[in-house]
Write a structure and sequence with these properties.
alpha+beta, single chain, binds adenosine-5'-diphosphate, Jelly Rolls, 2 domains, binds magnesium ion, four-stranded antiparallel sheet
Length: 331
């Protein structure tokens, strides 16, 4: 290797596309912290269609808001090509939202009093980068791209749900963004209209644009280049029932950990505490031999709602949820 460029900083090579690294987002609940995104990482290359898959409440909208620069994550980083979104100044972030990201929403969010081409032109008119005439001209191109040239003069109320969403996609693309994000864009559509919109997303994977689409519908998996699952897939642990011996003060599991086993106390005491915002904790219960804990989260696949800690030396039996259930149902 030549050392001729000694004055150049030894920068890391920046990966192209969308790079999410160790993303955490916590919301303040009723006195406690809910971790909605927990150390999420993925990399989408230019031209990829990413499907974020998860049920309602799994953090899809939160993640898209972070990616779109509308919400600050608690920690972790987001980069789009050369832009470090999480470290950007307010001004850069404003530019990022207006120029580099296109948004499509579940409810279409078209302006009722404007016709289709005016709706599509809105982001360009707002960004004041081109004249109004040029913006409307570009809107016509985009409407043609989504197959709606003949509906340019129609108001949203004169269009079907599928057509309105195609107008919204055209609007999302009108600034030619590097990233298009769509939050459950097919949730309000019947399957025929949904297919049209998804087909459109597939066609749009050109010119290195990254497209991120959230859904709770696993039927979209086959169209994705990459699937990001917002909830762990298998919550069934890999070991059967087994004994666990812990010394006093050891944590069995921590609040917000993914669920795994149900624990039955054979001997000793276990305290259940809730971790509070600002660092304190509240003791919810002390459990003794013969009692069990961690069963609901493990059966439902929810994160742990509290921390469990050995308050004496303890012996526990860790059980996969299905074994625990059949044991409880038998006894
Ligand atoms: P999804 O889009 O997958 O349905 P969301 O990102 O909307 O999920 O929400 C994930 C979780 O975060 C939910 O439990 C929701 O109640 C909670 N949440 C979302 N926004 C806020 C907020 N502003 N404050 C507190 N909790 C929130
Ligand atoms: Mg949502």
């Amino acid at each position: 290797m030549s050392t001729a460029t000694t004055t150049a900083p030894l920068e890391e090579v920046v990966a192209e596309g969308l790079v999410i690294d160790g993303l955490v987002k916590e919301y303040a609940g009723d006195g406690y912290v809910v971790r909605v995104l927990d150390d999420l990482s993925f990399h989408a290359r230019p031209g990829e269609l990413v499907v974020l898959l998860g049920p309602s409440g799994s953090g899809k909208s939160t993640l898209l808001s972070c990616i779109g620069g509308m919400l600050s994550p608690t920690s972790g980083s987001i980069r789009l090509n050369e832009i470090d979104v999480t470290a950007a100044s307010r001004r850069t972030l404003d530019e990022y939202r207006k120029r580099h990201v296109g948004f499509v929403f579940q409810g279409f969010n078209l302006i009722p009093s404007l016709n289709a081409r005016e709706n599509v032109a809105v982001p360009l008119i707002v960004s004041k980068t081109v004249s109004r005439t040029a913006a409307l001209g570009r809107a016509d191109e985009m409407l043609s791209r989504v197959g709606l040239s003949d509906r340019a003069k129609h108001k949203p109320s004169q269009l079907s749900g599928g057509q309105q969403q195609r107008v919204a996609v055209a609007r999302g693309l009108v600034t030619d963004p590097q990233l298009l994000i769509a939050d459950e864009p097919t949730a309000n559509l019947d399957h025929i209209q949904a297919e049209g919109v998804i087909g459109l997303f597939r066609e749009l994977r050109t010119q290195g644009r990254v497209i991120v689409v959230s859904t709770h519908d696993a039927r979209l998996i086959p169209v994705a280049d990459r699937v990001v699952r917002m909830t762990p897939d298998g919550i069934e642990p890999d070991q059967g029932a087994h004994e666990v011996r812990l010394t006093r003060g050891t944590v069995v599991f921590r609040q917000e950990d993914p669920p795994e086993y149900v624990y039955v106390i054979e001997s000793g005491d276990v305290e259940i505490v809730r971790e509070l915002i600002g660092g304190g904790e509240e003791r919810l219960a002390v459990l003794r031999a013969g009692q069990y804990f961690g069963e609901l989260g493990a059966m439902l696949g929810f994160p742990r709602s509290a921390t469990a800690r050995a308050s004496t030396d303890v012996v526990l039996t860790a059980m996969p949820p299905h074994e625990f259930r059949s044991k409880v149902e038998r006894s």
